Amino acid sequence: MIRMFLLTICMVISQAAFSQRTTDGIFLFKSWFFMEHVNANYRTQNVFPSKDASLFASYQKNMFIKCDTLRSQGFEEEYVFLSVPGIENKKSWSDSTIVYGKTRETDYMLTPTGNCEGYVLCVNTDNGKSYRLRGFLGNDFMSLLRDVRKEYEEAEHKPLSARAFLKNHGVESLDLYCIYHGLKRGKDDTDVYPCLKRCSYYTVIIH
Fold first, then answer.
1. Which of 70, 93, 118, 123 is the most buried (most CB within 10 A)?
2. Is the per-residue pLDDT at 17 higher than 80?
3. Are 196 and 88 in contact (CB under 8 A)?
4. Number of independent structural domains in the chain
Protein backbone atom coordinates (compact mmCIF):
# COMPACT_ATOMS: atom_id res chain seq x y z
CA MET A 1 0.00 0.00 0.00
CA ILE A 2 2.83 2.37 0.92
CA ARG A 3 4.65 1.54 -2.32
CA MET A 4 1.52 2.30 -4.34
CA PHE A 5 1.01 5.60 -2.50
CA LEU A 6 4.61 6.68 -3.10
CA LEU A 7 4.14 5.88 -6.79
CA THR A 8 0.99 8.03 -6.78
CA ILE A 9 2.86 10.94 -5.17
CA CYS A 10 5.65 10.64 -7.77
CA MET A 11 3.07 10.71 -10.56
CA VAL A 12 1.40 13.78 -9.05
CA ILE A 13 4.77 15.52 -8.78
CA SER A 14 5.58 14.69 -12.41
CA GLN A 15 2.19 15.91 -13.61
CA ALA A 16 2.58 19.13 -11.62
CA ALA A 17 6.02 19.69 -13.12
CA PHE A 18 4.86 19.27 -16.71
CA SER A 19 1.64 21.24 -16.27
CA GLN A 20 3.44 24.36 -15.06
CA ARG A 21 6.33 26.34 -16.48
CA THR A 22 7.81 26.60 -13.01
CA THR A 23 7.70 23.73 -10.55
CA ASP A 24 5.93 24.42 -7.27
CA GLY A 25 8.76 24.27 -4.72
CA ILE A 26 6.46 24.45 -1.70
CA PHE A 27 4.50 21.46 -3.02
CA LEU A 28 7.76 19.51 -3.35
CA PHE A 29 8.82 20.46 0.18
CA LYS A 30 5.48 19.21 1.52
CA SER A 31 5.78 16.03 -0.54
CA TRP A 32 9.21 15.23 0.89
CA PHE A 33 8.12 16.08 4.45
CA PHE A 34 5.12 13.80 4.02
CA MET A 35 7.08 10.90 2.52
CA GLU A 36 9.74 11.06 5.25
CA HIS A 37 7.17 11.17 8.05
CA VAL A 38 6.70 7.98 10.06
CA ASN A 39 3.22 6.86 11.05
CA ALA A 40 3.81 7.38 14.77
CA ASN A 41 4.46 10.19 17.22
CA TYR A 42 7.14 8.95 19.59
CA ARG A 43 6.45 11.72 22.12
CA THR A 44 2.78 10.80 22.59
CA GLN A 45 2.92 7.14 21.44
CA ASN A 46 0.08 7.93 19.03
CA VAL A 47 -0.15 5.81 15.90
CA PHE A 48 -1.60 7.60 12.89
CA PRO A 49 -3.48 6.28 9.85
CA SER A 50 -1.58 4.78 6.96
CA LYS A 51 -0.46 7.30 4.37
CA ASP A 52 -3.01 7.82 1.64
CA ALA A 53 -4.28 10.49 -0.72
CA SER A 54 -6.80 11.95 1.75
CA LEU A 55 -4.16 12.32 4.49
CA PHE A 56 -1.81 14.01 2.02
CA ALA A 57 -4.61 16.37 0.94
CA SER A 58 -5.11 17.40 4.58
CA TYR A 59 -1.33 17.75 4.94
CA GLN A 60 -1.23 20.08 1.94
CA LYS A 61 -4.19 22.16 3.06
CA ASN A 62 -3.15 22.69 6.68
CA MET A 63 0.61 23.20 6.35
CA PHE A 64 1.98 26.68 5.60
CA ILE A 65 5.62 27.14 4.63
CA LYS A 66 7.87 30.16 4.17
CA CYS A 67 10.29 29.36 1.36
CA ASP A 68 13.34 31.38 0.23
CA THR A 69 15.43 31.13 -2.94
CA LEU A 70 19.18 30.78 -2.46
CA ARG A 71 21.88 32.24 -4.67
CA SER A 72 24.05 29.76 -6.56
CA GLN A 73 26.96 29.75 -8.97
CA GLY A 74 28.11 27.33 -11.65
CA PHE A 75 24.75 25.59 -12.07
CA GLU A 76 22.53 25.85 -15.13
CA GLU A 77 19.55 28.18 -14.62
CA GLU A 78 17.06 25.32 -14.38
CA TYR A 79 18.61 24.30 -11.05
CA VAL A 80 16.88 26.34 -8.37
CA PHE A 81 17.83 26.07 -4.70
CA LEU A 82 15.06 26.62 -2.16
CA SER A 83 15.34 26.94 1.60
CA VAL A 84 13.03 26.61 4.59
CA PRO A 85 15.07 28.26 7.36
CA GLY A 86 15.48 26.55 10.71
CA ILE A 87 14.32 28.04 13.98
CA GLU A 88 16.97 29.03 16.48
CA ASN A 89 16.15 28.40 20.12
CA LYS A 90 15.99 32.12 20.89
CA LYS A 91 13.71 33.00 18.00
CA SER A 92 10.12 33.94 18.78
CA TRP A 93 7.32 31.65 17.64
CA SER A 94 5.95 34.40 15.43
CA ASP A 95 9.01 33.90 13.22
CA SER A 96 8.22 30.23 12.63
CA THR A 97 8.86 29.03 9.08
CA ILE A 98 6.33 26.18 9.23
CA VAL A 99 2.93 26.56 10.88
CA TYR A 100 -0.18 24.39 10.92
CA GLY A 101 -3.92 24.82 10.82
CA LYS A 102 -5.88 23.22 13.65
CA THR A 103 -6.96 19.75 12.51
CA ARG A 104 -7.22 16.32 14.06
CA GLU A 105 -4.12 15.25 12.09
CA THR A 106 -1.97 18.14 13.39
CA ASP A 107 0.16 15.87 15.57
CA TYR A 108 0.97 13.79 12.51
CA MET A 109 1.95 16.83 10.44
CA LEU A 110 4.58 18.21 12.80
CA THR A 111 7.83 18.62 10.91
CA PRO A 112 11.15 19.25 12.68
CA THR A 113 12.55 22.74 12.03
CA GLY A 114 14.69 23.39 15.10
CA ASN A 115 18.32 22.96 16.12
CA CYS A 116 19.57 23.08 12.54
CA GLU A 117 20.15 25.55 9.72
CA GLY A 118 16.91 24.52 8.03
CA TYR A 119 16.05 22.59 4.91
CA VAL A 120 17.46 23.02 1.41
CA LEU A 121 15.90 21.46 -1.66
CA CYS A 122 17.28 21.74 -5.18
CA VAL A 123 14.66 21.64 -7.93
CA ASN A 124 15.29 21.11 -11.63
CA THR A 125 12.53 23.25 -13.12
CA ASP A 126 12.91 21.57 -16.53
CA ASN A 127 12.00 18.06 -15.43
CA GLY A 128 10.60 18.51 -11.89
CA LYS A 129 13.30 16.38 -10.26
CA SER A 130 14.25 17.43 -6.72
CA TYR A 131 17.22 16.77 -4.46
CA ARG A 132 17.33 16.97 -0.66
CA LEU A 133 20.50 18.80 0.39
CA ARG A 134 20.04 19.77 4.05
CA GLY A 135 17.84 19.05 7.06
CA PHE A 136 16.04 15.99 5.68
CA LEU A 137 16.45 12.38 6.80
CA GLY A 138 18.25 11.65 3.55
CA ASN A 139 20.62 13.63 1.33
CA ASP A 140 20.54 13.49 -2.49
CA PHE A 141 23.71 15.45 -3.20
CA MET A 142 25.40 12.51 -4.93
CA SER A 143 22.43 12.20 -7.29
CA LEU A 144 22.64 15.93 -8.05
CA LEU A 145 26.37 15.62 -8.70
CA ARG A 146 25.81 12.66 -11.01
CA ASP A 147 23.14 14.49 -13.02
CA VAL A 148 25.20 17.68 -13.34
CA ARG A 149 28.27 15.72 -14.43
CA LYS A 150 26.24 13.77 -16.99
CA GLU A 151 24.82 16.98 -18.49
CA TYR A 152 28.28 18.55 -18.57
CA GLU A 153 29.82 15.55 -20.32
CA GLU A 154 27.04 15.49 -22.91
CA ALA A 155 27.47 19.21 -23.62
CA GLU A 156 31.26 19.53 -23.41
CA HIS A 157 32.25 16.01 -24.51
CA LYS A 158 34.68 15.68 -21.61
CA PRO A 159 34.35 14.53 -18.01
CA LEU A 160 33.77 16.80 -15.03
CA SER A 161 35.75 15.74 -11.99
CA ALA A 162 34.33 16.04 -8.49
CA ARG A 163 37.19 18.40 -7.64
CA ALA A 164 36.34 20.68 -10.57
CA PHE A 165 32.67 20.60 -9.64
CA LEU A 166 33.36 21.63 -6.05
CA LYS A 167 35.72 24.37 -7.22
CA ASN A 168 33.29 25.92 -9.71
CA HIS A 169 29.89 25.33 -8.10
CA GLY A 170 28.46 26.83 -4.96
CA VAL A 171 25.17 27.49 -3.15
CA GLU A 172 24.49 30.17 -0.58
CA SER A 173 24.75 28.78 3.00
CA LEU A 174 25.64 25.26 1.80
CA ASP A 175 29.06 23.67 2.27
CA LEU A 176 29.18 21.41 -0.77
CA TYR A 177 32.70 20.24 0.08
CA CYS A 178 31.54 19.06 3.51
CA ILE A 179 28.45 17.34 2.09
CA TYR A 180 30.44 15.55 -0.62
CA HIS A 181 33.15 14.21 1.66
CA GLY A 182 30.73 13.28 4.44
CA LEU A 183 28.55 11.25 2.07
CA LYS A 184 31.50 9.75 0.21
CA ARG A 185 33.04 8.49 3.44
CA GLY A 186 29.70 7.26 4.73
CA LYS A 187 30.11 9.16 7.97
CA ASP A 188 27.10 10.20 10.05
CA ASP A 189 29.18 12.15 12.58
CA THR A 190 27.65 15.64 12.61
CA ASP A 191 30.51 16.93 14.76
CA VAL A 192 32.91 16.20 11.90
CA TYR A 193 30.36 16.90 9.15
CA PRO A 194 27.86 19.45 10.57
CA CYS A 195 26.45 19.95 7.05
CA LEU A 196 24.72 16.55 7.39
CA LYS A 197 22.81 17.47 10.54
CA ARG A 198 19.09 16.66 10.47
CA CYS A 199 16.49 19.02 11.87
CA SER A 200 14.76 18.24 15.18
CA TYR A 201 11.37 19.26 16.54
CA TYR A 202 10.48 22.89 17.31
CA THR A 203 7.09 23.94 15.98
CA VAL A 204 4.14 26.26 16.45
CA ILE A 205 0.44 25.56 15.83
CA ILE A 206 -2.15 28.16 14.75
CA HIS A 207 -5.30 28.03 16.93
1. 123
2. no
3. no
4. 1
